[in-house]
Fold NADH-ubiquinone oxidoreductase chain 2.
Amino acid sequence: MKKSAWLFIITMMMSTMITLSSNNWISMWMGLEINMMSFIPIILNKSNKSSAEAAMIYFLIQSLSSMILMIMVLISMMKYSMSNNMIKLMITSSILMKLGAAPFHIWVPEMMSKISWYKGMLLMTWQKLAPLMMISNIYTSSTIINLSTIWSVIIGSIGGINQSSLRKLMGYSSINHLGWMIAINKSLNLWLMYFIIYSVMNMMICQMFSNMKIYFTNQMSSMNMNNNEKINLSIMMLSMGGLPPFIGFMPKWLVIQNMINSKEIIICVIMVMCSLITLMFYMRVMMYMFMTYNTLIKWNVINYNKLYLMIMTAMNLSLPMIMFMKLI
């Protein structure tokens, strides 16, 4: 990474903090704009045709959503005849567009397929923090949130079924997880905990794929991975899918509990069913790794850090320990 990229990473983090600590729309908007103008040079760090396309997609989507957001804020300040509910609906829609939640999701997988794993990791984790906090602070109608939740979990699960590109698959997985986070947007502690656990798991998977230079599912069969690496990657995948007893199940469990208490049973059932579909396409990726003959390629030998693999395993198997501590 070029030295200048670190300046933009610091600016990107500071701009998110500006949005999180703001108490008015103008400063929130300013933080989002600085964030956008910091992330675009990071995308263009290695200039090629794909990264230029990704930067243009990101710029157009974020500019359009910011424009809608500011127009609605100005209308609400000038007290025009437009109804309050309509203004809130448009503001929420503009923030959902920034997040890449369904039905404004089409740009996320397309952009993911054109950028590197580390940039994709930033897009799927850090870039979602400020808009999620904004949605959490808006007292909006539950209808648009519920519709976006249902669309996100359905599209995020069905969209990943037929994907051979792992970056697109992770993009659809991100949309699915976003649906779970939006569903509990009123409970700050709950979605923040979900976001942190999801971000850590996402970082570990993206780092592993980046180190091994894996971009497509058919590459999994030709990687020279030992059994420890295969088992660790499988555990990470199953944890991302929310399978017990891995740590990825804990936030989903708490969301289900919260939604049952709120009497949102139908949405909860849809979310759980779609979670099973995401598990299916994660297991399909693992099948390439375990069920096919591994071709040994001399120039593709990877000496992966054993300590890192141990940390991954310990983190993902920590849910039974948490449960045991609670029982004590």
Q: What stands out?
A: The two ends are 47 Å apart (CA to CA). Residues 3-327 form one domain. DSSP finds 15 helices and no strands in the chain.
